[in-house]
Each structure stands twice: as C-alpha cells, then as structure tokens.
Write a structure and sequence with these properties.
The chain is mainly α. The protein contains four helices and two strands; from the N terminus they run ααααββ. A two-stranded antiparallel sheet has the order 1-2. Helix 2 packs across helix 4. It is elongated, with a radius of gyration of 29 Å. The mean pLDDT is 83.
C-alpha cells in the first residue's frame, strides 16, 4: 500500500508541475535585410525598376514603383539613380517618375 501512495503522490506532483508550466510568447523582431551596394546589385535593381515602369505604362511614385517591383524603397532609389544617370527616366511635376 505504501507503494500506491508514493506513486499517486508522484503522479499528482507531475500533474501540478504540468499545470504550472505556461508557454511564454516572445515577440520576434523582424530582421533587417542587408543591402549589398555594388554595381552588379544596383544594376539588377535598376532593371526591376525599369520593368515595373514599363509594365505600368504611366508615371509612378517611388512607393508605387517599389511595390510593383517587389523591392524596398531604398533599392528603388538606387535603381532610379542608375536609370536617371543613363537618361532613361524623366520626372513629372507631381513628383512621379516615368520612362523617358
């Protein structure tokens, strides 16, 4: 009989311990992507920007270009700089960008 009480007591202890254990939710911060600033990467981003503007067939704002090209605004600005330097873009009066 002593064994049964010990076993029952141990089972109750495990049950109590299980009830006290709670899952702690931890907020995970989004990791920032690292942007490689080199001629090759910027050239690819310029291509993404160009394709987004060509597909839209109208002038777009920087945010709209970034969304259409599925790249960040920083990457969009790098691509825009490249394309402006090559003379492939023109700026409109309402701060939008179109193909030249």
């Amino acid at each position: 009989m002593a064994e049964k009480k010990t076993t029952k007591k141990a089972a109750e202890t495990v049950e109590v311990a299980a009830k006290k254990t709670t899952t702690k939710k931890v907020a995970v911060k989004a990791e920032k992507t690292v942007l490689a600033v080199n001629a090759e990467n910027i050239g690819f981003k310029a291509g993404d920007v160009y394709q987004a503007l060509a597909a839209a067939e109208k002038a777009l704002a920087v945010k709209e270009i970034a969304k259409a090209a599925k790249i960040s605004e920083e990457e969009t600005l790098l691509g825009l700089g490249w394309l402006f330097k090559e003379g492939k873009l023109q700026s409109t009066e309402d701060n939008k960008i179109a193909l030249a």
